[in-house]
Amino acid sequence: MQQPVRIAPSILSADFANLGAEVRAVDAAGADYIHIDVMDGHFVPNLTIGPMVVQALRPHSAKVFDVHLMISPVDAFVAAFAKAGADIITVHPEAGAHTHRTLQLIRSLGKKAGVALNPATPISVLDYIMDDVDMILVMSVNPGFGGQSFINSQKDKIRAIRQRIDAVTAGTSRVIDLEVDGGINAEMAPVAISAGADVLVAGTATFQGGPEAYADNIRRLRGPLV
């Protein structure tokens, strides 16, 4: 079943000169997860951070570190991010030759395993890995940059994945989170939630206005379901 909505501010939109303070600020403002976008300039057209930055941020918050690896090949970096303090590690099927093996690796390190679907990635990639995922991330923009607009076709994908998750978990204690990342703001958050999302990644919509605005920004993203 769809779980209570959680907000995962993406530090991609934070002040990189003050990342520790920014993480503390969104933590105090009510963030549920800290979403960390890792980009390699190869798999996606941008460069961000590596395991050393994750490790440096770890003492600044006890919240879940939701680390999204947009790097290829990905397997060689999984252990480093696990050691650095990631709680959830999400990978793309296109970023390695053996997605099932990558998910097994993440879980063997004691971390939750996520799989991310780009806008053009079909949900059929989930056919034989549902037993090995703790989270499915729907990218509602093409990954690489913040501030993009939600791609409307992804609403149907979110609904279809919600149905698949509910079918797999029905009658069990299993929980598979459905996360949506891209173009999430106060207007689009209810759309994603109504389609079945229970974790929302929001960068620009969280960090706009400075630290004094973060709590109100997060409340608006949660919407009337809170």
From TrEMBL:
GO terms for molecular function: D-ribulose-phosphate 3-epimerase activity; metal ion binding. It holds the Pfam family Ribul_P_3_epim. Keywords: Carbohydrate metabolism, Cobalt, Isomerase, Manganese, Metal-binding, Zinc. The keyword Transport does not apply. GO terms for biological process: pentose catabolic process; pentose-phosphate shunt. A divalent metal cation binds at H35, D37, H68, D181. It catalyses: D-ribulose 5-phosphate = D-xylulose 5-phosphate. Its EC number is 5.1.3.1. It is an enzyme of class 5 (isomerase). Its cofactor is a divalent metal cation; Co(2+); Zn(2+); Mn(2+). Gene3D superfamilies: Aldolase class I. GO terms for cellular component: cytoplasm. Pathway: Carbohydrate degradation. Substrate binds at S10, H68, G144, F145, G146, G147, D181, G182, G183, G203, T204. The active site is at D37, D181. Binds 1 divalent metal cation per subunit. InterPro entries: Aldolase_TIM, Ribul_P_3_epim, Ribul_P_3_epim-like, RibuloseP-bd_barrel. HAMAP family: RPE (MF_02227). Catalyzes the reversible epimerization of D-ribulose 5-phosphate to D-xylulose 5-phosphate. Belongs to the ribulose-phosphate 3-epimerase family. NCBIfam families: PRK05581.1-4 (NF004076), rpe (TIGR01163). This is Ribulose-phosphate 3-epimerase. It comes from Nitrospirillum amazonense.
